[in-house]
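For anyone still unconvinced, we reproduce a single protein record, the chain in one-letter code, the fold tokenised, and leave readers to judge:
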Amino acid sequence: VQLQASGGGLVQTGDSLRLSCIASVPTRNFAGLAWFRQAPGKDREFVAAVAWSGSSKYYADSVRSRFTISKDIDKRSIYLQMNNLQSEDTAVYYCAANFGAGADWWRAGYVNWGQGTQVTVSS
């Protein structure tokens, strides 16, 4: 399965953006899908994850109050609504799939990384 992220752009501090990620084929085997980001010179970091079955969602502390992850199984897609964007949110955002199991599936084991979409927040 291939993942394609889109929706990035250049915005100003305090603006909002909605990222989308679509899977190339339907799959019922996902434990979930997630968003990660990588800023220049920094390691890739987890942003948010959503379980493919059920309603569980997980967030990094740095975005919990501003970002919302959602899914549309029929469209094989996840979304990341980002509000009140700050300069530290500038990064390439990637989506990735997880086929793990158990309550901690979202903590590791991501595969099928998409190409990423650039988000730049200017002040």
Remarks:
- The first strand starts at residue 3 and ends at 6.
